[in-house]
Amino acid sequence: MFRNYFKTAWRYMTKNRVTSIINIFGLSLGITSCLIIFLITRHEFSFDTFHPSKERIYRLYEEVEYNGNIRRGAQMLDPMAEPLRQEITGTEAVTIFYNYDVPVIVSGNGSEKQFEAPRSGIDPREIIVTDTWYFNIFQYEWLSGSPAVMETPYVVVLTESKARKYFGDIPYNDMIGKEVTYNKGLNVQVAGIVKDWKQNTDFTFTDFISTASIPGSILKDRIDMESWGMWSDQTQVFIKLAEGMTPAAIESQFPAWVSKYVFTPPDRDIKIKLHLQPLSDLHFNTTLGGDVYTHPVHLPTLYGLMAIAIFILLIAVFNFINLSTAQSLQRFKEIGVRKVLGSNRAKLVTQFMGETLLIALFAVLLALLVTKPLLVAFQSFIPQGLSMGLTNPFTWIFLVVLIICTTFLAGFYPAKVLSACSPIESTKGYVQKGGSKNILRKTLIVFQFTISLVFIICTLIVGNQIHFIMNKDMGFDKDAIITVKMKGNHEVLAEKMRQFPYVKMVSIHTEPPTAKGHAGTIFKYNENGENMETSGSLEFCDDNFIPLYGLRLIAGRNVLPSPYMKEFVLNESFVKQLGFNNPEDAIGHYIKSSIWDYMPENERVPFDQRQGQIVGVVADFHLTSLHDPIKPMAISATTQSARTMSIKLATTGKGIGDVERIMSDIEKTWKEVNPNERLEVAFYDDTIASFYEKEQKTEQIISAAMAMAIFISCMGLFGLAVFTTKQRTKEIGIRKVMGASVSNILVILSSGVLKLVGIAALIASPIAWYAMSRWLEGFAYHTPIHWWIFVLAGLLAALIALITISMQTIKVA
User: Fold this and answer.
1) Which residue has the higher pLDDT, 388 or 340?
2) At the N or C end, where does the chain have fewer CB atoms within 10 A?
3) Rounded distance, CA 586 to CA 572, Å?
């Protein structure tokens, strides 16, 4: 029986090739979208789900409230782990680790291997300084040694892959006792080897140096076990709760602990709270900083991808329903004959569902064939390590469920309609005109074009915003500037760079104008009875910083070189916050920075001189991306904390177009000054463009979804046009005999569809407006949503629909 059903289904498909191809391609596009999004979603939600008792593992983060502003971050205090273990009850384990991104030297057998430090924000972090409690919370299989070795100073535990990288294929026991040198001054011995995790994880660490090594080594210069005032973005704390303990019970103990240990300036109303972040939230929460991951995932974007895949599949399903119900006129005699010969409604439903199932199977097969090439073609959108996973049973379960759901959604209604007619009317070929089928068909067309129009409008608005942020005046120059991450000997390197004829200016400073790493501090202004405090960013630089980046001085002068913070240039926002309406009025006044509060009294600046004079004011410029508003900013001329060198290239002259030669000269000079350090160099305008990588990918994803939605909708319209023109061939002939032109006939046949597109535009416009308004709220500066975008989208949809229908209508007319 089932063999007969499939044989009949195959005959029907080969007889109606156009409709069958449209249905198969449409469903395959929808299924491909769902499959790819499923693979991405399964991959992202699999991170760190393999840890024993994962639901009891939390990361600690702080919440600082000052002057009405709240800042949250996973940065921690270096000495806090032991007091937490001692005084917070209800914890099974508390561990702390310090990221240590440094070069490595491995010596042995008369040779020396050198490994460069990982690039910040690009390479995964591999080296941490931690304790034995880390291996209590995050469990590894030990190939040699045990967690107890972490209690010994000057030892390191390596993962299997890193041990092989350092020492080759020698036995694990022979690796024990081998020496590894970190940062050219920390000599430790290998004390243990652990097996690499095979599962997806954000904890990419491979070198675990014992915290017992801190007091007597160069680590103490970076990890301050005595300071309770400086929060470090290299330091993180994880807590494993005891069984039966709730996060709320732990957090209730934090206020007393904070008041006992955490230092805050006594003359400031700063409130500090500690909270727990679940391990499951780590991969998706990008707001807390202190990232242990390299490529965090934006959870709303992931949900958006899932919604896009579902909508594209629904469009394909509605196409199938439209074409199937439209063709029902051709099948009523067949149904009547079947009923006269004894077929009941259940058997007819099974027959038509079998036809749908066969089409769905072809669509899934086609989807499987194109998914892997698509994953390769769009690898910039695909998470690293993602594969088809056809050996994973969950992939096949998903495909089976998808086939069943698609078959039911696409086939049930047409089967129900076709099997409902009476045998007598069917054999006579009588079918009632209009009715619910036409209403349903029109509704589905409206739905399809509503989704397509939402995608069109969103694509136009996102593209408009990206053009806006990429071309908006940031308040500084960004063209022809190269930034180099400093490693040491910066004055020597800068002087050598100045010798090149194509270099106009060189500046040494902490960060470029738009950066995530500007130091945050609290400024205090206290003169003439005025007592004011405000939080802001602080940039340490030389006197070339302002002219190199083209910052516009609107009052006063540039800062002069100084070994400590002696002078300040403020931005307009800072001056206004201090109460000066005229920038000139701020010149000559003094402000203090909270950074001085954390310095020993005998260090750098005498205690009674810890203030700087305001000597200039620059026009506001953007400190971060356009997601954030402009905040108070101070510039001080000292290069003690310099970690960036900016090179301004001449706009004219010999060699300016030869980028390869410029980069080659920079690399050669770098190796002369820092032969053992990795060069990190970039054109500054490319760096700014990378800030909006997520938005650019969003535009490309929505554009791809728009193209797929329009393509599937147009295939459905083309199929309906083919069927409609066949049904109305006699009518078209009579109209031509009566004098109607091709254009008259085209208007008659397309007017109904254009009305449906107009209705879709009215429905889609408020939906798209609301969605894009919410998206634009993520930008402090954004383009308005123009009315012409909705008109243009409607006209585009109408034009696409008209062209699709005309391809068949004009041919017949």
Assistant:
1) 388
2) N
3) 10
- pLDDT value at residue 165: 92
- Residue among 162, 143, 141 nearest 208 (CA): 162
Contact 543, 559 (CB under 8 A): yes
171 three-class SS: coil
Take residue 357 and report the two structure tokens written for it: 């199932």
Q: Is 484 helix (H, G, I), strand (E, B) or coil?
A: strand
Give the three-class secondary structure for 676: coil
Tell the burial category of 429 from Cβ atoms under 10 Å away from its Cβ (0-12, 13-18, 19+): exposed
Residues in the chain: 813
pLDDT for position 434: 46
Give dist(CA 424, CA 114) in Å, integer: 88
Determine which of 84-93, 386-395, 396-405, 528-537 has the lowest per-residue pLDDT on average: 528-537
Strands 503-509 and 644-649: antiparallel
Concatenating the DSSP letter of every residue in 293-304 gives -SS---HHHHHH
Alpha helices in 197-331 (DSSP H): 247-251, 254-261, 299-326
Query: Which DSSP letter does residue 197 get?
Result: P
For the chain, give the mean pLDDT.
80
The per-residue pLDDT for range 584-611, each reduced to its tens digit, is 988 888 887 766 554 444 444 554 456 7
What is d(CA 308, CA 257) in angstroms, rounded to the nearest whole number? Answer: 47
226 exposure class (CB count in 10 Å sphere: 0-12, 13-18, 19+): exposed
- Angle at which helix 693-727 crosses helix 17-44, to 10 degrees, equals 160
- Which of 66-70, 432-436, 468-472, 651-655 ranks highest by mean pLDDT? 468-472
Q: Which two tokens stand for residue 424?
A: 């007598």
**Who contacts 184 (Cβ-Cβ below 8 Å, separation ≥6)?**
103, 105, 676
Distance CA 223, CA 116 (A): 21
Read off the pLDDT of each residue in 223-241 and give the average, rounded to a whole number: 86
The amino acid occupying position 451 is I
Contact 506, 544 (CB under 8 A): yes
| d(C-alpha 315, C-alpha 8), whole Å | 27
Note the Cα 547 to chain centre separation in Å.
Answer: 34
Strand, coil or helix: 139: coil
Confidence grade of residue 132 (pLDDT, cut at 50, 70, 90): very high
- The DSSP annotation for 366-431 comes to HHHHHHHHHHHHTTTTSPTT----TTSHHHHHHHHHHHHHHHHHHHHHHHHHHTSS-HHHHHHT--
Burial of 675 (0-12, 13-18, 19+ CB in 10 A): exposed
CB atoms within 10 A of CB 243: 8
Closest CA to 12 of 341, 357, 417: 357
